[in-house]
Design goal:
Rossmann fold; 10 strands; 17 helices; Ribosomal_uL1-like; alpha/beta; Ribosomal protein L1; Ribosomal_uL1_3-a/b-sand; single chain; Ribulose 1,5 Bisphosphate Carboxylase/Oxygenase; Ribosomal_uL1/biogenesis; four-stranded antiparallel sheet; about 375 residues; about 15% strand
Length: about 375
């Protein structure tokens, strides 16, 4: 019996402990289903309301475009943390591969921004070994110098933004693009350039030339390797980090099924917390999902408002509390030699040593003499009245 009891205890100790620092798949699926149903119901309500306006009713082509826009409306994942994720803007976004891509349209228009000279990259894309379906979706390849020369005004940048669905850029120049493209691309838009590796890293390592990496003279990679990099960027979601306690990532579309959205959410949350959130799950305060104009649906909320026990300041005994109050009182006490306040500075010193000059404090002997003089005057007045 003793041996059996010992074996049972050993098996029990090996069982994994439950932890709240993970996503509940059932809760994630319920939240995804509720959000998608709300978006579909709201879209249907708006369509019915617009169809009642007979004079201002849109044409059939406009209605089809609106329906397509509603289907491609993004679903956002927001992660709030207890402490700042980063201290400064990271101009180079990272990528997280998701099970269900957000860019599956065969009519996807891709703009590829490269280093100079751009002709080398164009030759690689035009190579017969480059996949034809992907080649048909790359509508423009432009070098960094021509980008700066041709697109200078806001109108030109807006036109470039509207002509393409996704922008890819050589990772060697990705940090220069914010100054060139400006807030048209980097403020309130989901078309920020995504970095791709275009240079042949094997040749760079063989040459060991840092200058070739910076000025773009390194030879581009092979057609199949470049196509693989572009496919990887298309099938991933970009993550742009900025100072603060909030990061938002596109994880799906309104046309997704609840299961697809739930799988993307689980993948992005695990990779995002693992790569970018300091202290991991203990630094996460809340995780929500929301549509373009809907309320945020919570899928995970933290029980504690601090990341660790070292962040909590406590007093163990009553003596510690009294000592803290005494220290604070000493800090608040005004310095006697200060010149601020009605009772400070020279006025207070005159009151202390006024006995020497007889102006502010007459002293005890003078007070007794004055009292005796007043008493004699009162007695003399009393005798005269009698």
């Amino acid at each position: 019996m003793a041996a059996v009891t010992k074996a049972t205890t050993t098996v029990t100790d090996k069982q994994p402990q439950q932890t709240p620092y993970h996503l509940d798949p059932d809760q994630t699926l319920k939240a995804s289903r509720a959000l998608l149903q709300h978006i579909q119901a709201e879209t249907k309500r708006l369509q019915q309301a617009s169809s009642k306006k007979s004079l201002l009713a849109p044409s059939s082509s406009d209605s089809e475009d609106d329906a397509a826009d509603d289907a491609t409306a993004p679903i956002w994942l927001t992660v709030t943390t207890k402490q700042h994720i980063v201290d400064k803007n990271r101009l180079k976004p990272s990528k997280i591969a998701v099970p269900h891509s957000l860019n599956t349209s065969p009519d996807l228009r891709i703009c590829l921004i490269t280093t100079d000279p751009q002709r080398a990259v164009k030759n690689v894309v035009a190579d017969p070994a480059f996949p034809e379906p992907l080649k048909s979706r790359i509508t423009r390849i432009i070098g960094y110098t021509k980008l700066k020369a041709r697109y200078k005004t806001f109108e030109q940048l807006r036109e470039l933004l509207s002509e393409h669905d996704i922008f890819l850029a050589d990772d060697r120049i990705i940090t220069r693009l914010p100054g060139t493209l400006g807030k048209v691309f980097y403020k309130g838009t989901s078309k920020r350039p995504i970095p791709v590796v275009i240079a042949d890293l094997r040749k760079d390592k063989a040459d060991k030339s840092k200058k070739s990496k910076e000025d773009g003279t390194a030879a581009p990679t092979s057609p199949l390797a470049l196509a693989k990099e572009i496919e990887k960027a298309i099938n991933a979601v970009p993550v742009s980090l900025r100072p603060g306690t909030l990061v938002a990532v596109r994880v799906g579309l309104a046309s997704f099924k609840p299961e697809q959205l739930s799988e993307n959410i689980s993948t992005v949350v695990s990779k995002l917390i693992e790569k970018h959130v300091v202290k991991g799950w203990r630094n996460v305060r809340g995780i929500h999902i929301k549509g373009q104009s809907s309320f945020a649906v919570p899928i995970w909320l933290a029980d504690d408002l601090w990341t660790g026990h070292e962040d909590i300041v406590t007093a163990t005994t009553q003596d510690d509390l009294l000592e803290d109050e005494a220290e604070q009182g000493q800090k608040r006490k005004r310095n006697a030699t200060s010149t601020k306040g009605p009772q400070a500075g020279s006025r207070k010193r005159l009151k202390v040593d006024g006995g020497k000059n007889g102006k502010s404090d007459p002293g005890p002997d003078a007070a007794r003499a004055r009292k005796s003089k007043l008493a004699a005057q009162k007695a003399k007045l009393f005798e005269e009245q009698v």
